[in-house]
Amino acid sequence: MDNGLKFLYNTAPGRSILKLLTRRGLSTAVGRFMDSSLSRPLIRTFVKNNNIDLEECESQDFRCFNDCFTRRLKQELRPVDMDPMHLISPCDGLLSVYDIDEDMVLPVKQSQYSLNDLFENEEVSAYFYGGTCLVFRLCVNHYHRYCYPLDGKKGENFFIPGVLHTVRPIALSKEPVFIRNCREYTIMENDIFGRAAQIEVGAMLVGKIHNNDGVADIRRGYEKGYFCYGGSTIILLLEPGAVRISEEILDANRRGEEYPVKLGQSIGERV
């Protein structure tokens, strides 16, 4: 994988291929194929290679690959911590925790993001300076449905399409910033944790980020949406002083390790 990324980002032929791979039109085409019955033969190999237990699914009646990829698990397999003083994980994934400052830079999906890059809105970014950033990295074998981590109110969904960046060596030598990925965010308001932002970040060749629409009351553990095919990332931002993350998660991060979490489990508590 590393050698492949070096080829794509650091060689002229690789950058030419990458320019094609990062176009949203190609992702859309791949997504349509994964939604079609023609993709069904891929399911058996995907399940075998990723050690997926289909007995955990509510249904195994998959009409296409994405039906399998976005499979809904039996509810009892993802119990939700309902203590209002606890913050829960919105998804299955590998968790990294960061302190937020104005110069913060996050490596997400072979791209670099500052807080302003994530939102493209300085006013929204300012809510979270001095707060906590949680990055949940989903691999293809993870459960790709995700939930609201808090009770309260949510605002509208804001979609930001991916863009292509300069391919000049000065950019590529610092970090593979050839792409910034499609992403969608919403702001949530909770009486205990205050304001929070949840950002879903798509990956190369992901068909689509599917989110529930509209402004509404929300409940922790209720489904917020799901990713179609591809590894993806969820970023959760909280205001200063809102949360104390569990020490075992922080210990793992200090060792340079991501911490495995599951949807609904407690990952911290109100300070």
Q: Give the overall form.
A: globular
Protein structure class: alpha+beta
Low-confidence stretches at least 5 residues in length (pLDDT < 50)? none
Number of helices: 9
Task: Please tell me how large the radius of gyration is.
Answer: 19 Å
- When the domains are counted, the total is 1
Binned strand content:
25-35%
Task: Tell me the major beta sheet.
Answer: 9 strands, antiparallel
Distance between the termini: 40 Å
What can be said about this structure in brief?
The chain has one domain (78-270).
Describe the structure in your own words:
This protein is of the alpha+beta class. The protein has one domain. It is 24% helix and 31% strand. The chain is built from nine helices and 19 strands. The chain has helices at residues 2-10, 12-21, 24-34, 42-49, 65-69, 115-119, 122-126, 169-172, 247-254, and strands at residues 86-88, 93-99, 105-108, 111-114, 132-138, 145-147, 152-154, 158-160, 163-164, 179-180, 183-190, 194-201, 209-211, 216-218, 223-227, 232-238, 243-245, 259-261, 266-270. The strands form five sheets. Strands 2, 5, 7, 8, 11, 12, 14, 16 and 18 form a nine-stranded antiparallel sheet that branches. A hairpin with a 3-residue loop joins β11 and β12. The longest helix has 11 residues, at 24-34. The protein is globular and about 50 Å long. The N and C termini lie far apart (40 Å).
